[in-house]
Amino acid sequence: MVQMTHKQAHAKAKELVAQMTLEEKVFQMTYKAPAIERLGIPEYNWWNEALHGVARAGTATVFPQAIALAAMFDETYLQKVAEVIATEGRAKHNAYAAQGDRDIYKGLTFWSPNVNIFRDPRWGRGHETYGEDPFLTARMGVAFIRGLQGDGKYLKLAACAKHFAVHSGPEGLRHEFDAKVSQKDLWETYLPAFEACVKEADVESIMGAYNRTNGEPCCGSHTLLTDILRKKWGFQGHVTSDCWAIADFHEHHKVTANAVESAAMAIHNGCDLNCGSVFLQALAAVQEGLLDESDIDRACENLMATRIRLGMMADDCEYDAIPYTENDTPEHHKIALKAAEKSMVLLKNDGILPLDPAALSSVAVIGPNADSRIMLRGNYNGTASRSYTVLEGVQAVLGDNVRVYYSEGCHLYKDSVEEGLARSNDRLAEAVFTARQADVVLLCLGLDGDYEGEEGCTSNPYGAGDKGDLKLPGHQQELLKAVLDTGKPVVLVLGTGSAVTFGGEEERCRAILNVWYPGALGGLAAANVLFGRSCPGGRLPVTFYRGEQDLPDFTDYSMKGRTYRYMQVPALYPFGYGLTYGRYTCENLQAEPESGGVRLTMHVQNEGAFTEDVVLESYVKDHDSPYATPNASLCGITHVVLAPGEGKDVSLAIPKERFLSVNEQGGRVMAGHRYTLYLGLSQPDARSTALMGQKPEETEVWWENGGFCKRS
Description:
Blueprint: H1 6-17, H2 22-27, E1 32-33, E2 44-45, H3 66-71, H4 75-98, H5 134-149, E3 160-164, E4 178-179, H6 183-190, H7 192-199, E5 205-208, E6 212-213, E7 216-217, H8 222-232, E8 238-240, H9 245-253, H10 259-268, H11 282-287, H12 293-309, H13 330-343, E9 345-349, E10 362-366, H14 373-377, H15 390-398, E11 403-407, H16 428-436, E12 440-446, H17 476-485, E13 490-495, E14 511-514, H18 522-530, H19 563-566, E15 584-594, E16 597-606, E17 612-622, E18 633-642, E19 647-655, E20 661-662, E21 668-669, E22 674-680, H20 686-692, E23 697-704, E24 707-709
Parallel strand pairs: 3-5, 4-6, 5-8, 10-11, 10-12, 12-13, 13-14
Antiparallel strand pairs: 1-2, 6-7, 9-14, 15-16, 16-19, 17-18, 17-22, 20-21, 22-23, 23-24
């Protein structure tokens, strides 16, 4: 079916807006838009969330957090997840609208995905993103948007890529902060995912960030919203502010004198919708000559065009028939469970995993995340009708055949579990004698979405949602040491949305499984992986550093020393790293030049005992360009499913664009001649090779006379 074009929608919107008064148009530009009954326009609240499931609107399937979905390294499955979210979003909207309920979080415009770059592990909102790599973030963002928006005559939902642009903390400074960034870093790191969302996925909405970028407040930046987004990229949807960000112009950034000037700046430079109320001052801005009514018309037409593309004023929208019974279904739960299993990253395994239930008489499940539903859900989440903590998942898998002991061990970050009368670290003794009863200990540590997150939405000691360091908070490090000191085999089950460190105790753990914030069914997924019912398939979308001493200052937005592409010290666990239960050999990598790039082929053989969906990662290293990143960069991802003993030839196209480097002016240029291409189970750094016990296959190609070639 051919989807309604922007041109068609804008033509209808222009006719509709022409019938509105100036006051009516202005009121349509706030997130709580009133009805215009004489024109058949119902009231509408633009604010809705769907980061990893329909959020804040009652019951819905709660998928793993975005950072976990990125760890799948699987854009096809992510699109499948997004298609489920779109179905549930429509089902819930239809049901609410039929009851006349058009409140917040019940519309069809979803302010997801977050495609900011997770440049610093201290940023509290990093777990909302797809990680630190521009290529991976772009691929995940495009897939998610396509899944949400669908391919029907009308948009199934309207997605929103946020926060545009150069936004990744500190949370406590976001309302006043000026993110100063070079043109090279801007175009090499911070903008590519947004560009892909616009050009490849035709995202319907863009949300501006709170901060300034190079002096301009993002929600009123002529450079970002007009020159780049509209003119350079050809964006045709609408732009929304982040919530109450327009008020920051005069209250915190001090670039305007009052709300009237702030409204005028934002609207004139390309912001169409205000999550807030400052745009109500647009009437005064027109009266004072700061805005033309044509500015109001343009913004209002952009907004009406989105509502028209969603079929909200049509009687033939195919999605209006989706019933509420399509929300939170058993089939959707199965997809969420598989997503959680695919996202889990095995950081260490000396062979203890998978555990054999038949060989165990008792298991101890210990730690503040062992029985935590908060850890499962992340943030920007819906309400689950069914959930499994790690403890509950283990109990469900083992049944009555194996004794399961439990101790909370310590609070996630507070001094004691029973605050007030209890002494410090009041659950440590229980954890120790619980561990001593068991054949093996599953120690569940880490963070949760109430500890790291958005400013004002968390309760950690640092206040704004960011982390002060990378250490395990509270008494968790003491708990880890004490349980290890019992001499029992310890499998560390890590719930986190960002990189953490373990004080060197990771060396004594028999295995480490990072389950992220795995969604409502995440505890069952963890148990399935731990006991061999499924295999861990995830790869790290972020670097686990050895400590904050390896990081530049948090407020420094230069990429120097940041992320796997620029860091010059060994990682604790590198980007792209993740073990499997199987053993694989990769051999005979070939690179064949073809129109538009290079095609890689390689033979992969499963020499293990498990059938697995194997992630293969390709990296490129430019040896000649003065603008190349210091380290190899991810340039391609593919998957292959192999049964024990099975081998397959895999093929992966690497387009010419992946070989370009970005110069100091922000231009993408082919400035190199010799390139090394890698394909295998990890990136080609020495730390990954040491951890994996093997390195990727590699081959070289040259760029000469306008094309790629090989040399003997």
